[in-house]
Amino acid sequence: MLQPARDALDPIRISSGFRLKELNIAVGGVNNSDHRLFCSRCNSD
Description:
Layout: H1 3-9, H2 21-26
C-alpha cells in the first residue's frame, strides 16, 4: 500500500507515530500528547 509513495519519494523515515495510552505513560508522555491522536502529522525527508 505504501510502496507507490516510497517509489516516488525515495526513502521514507518515520520519526514519530501513534502511541497507545500505556506506551505514552511508559515513555513519560503527557496525556494530551499529539502521539495519542491518530496521524496528527506526517513528514518525509
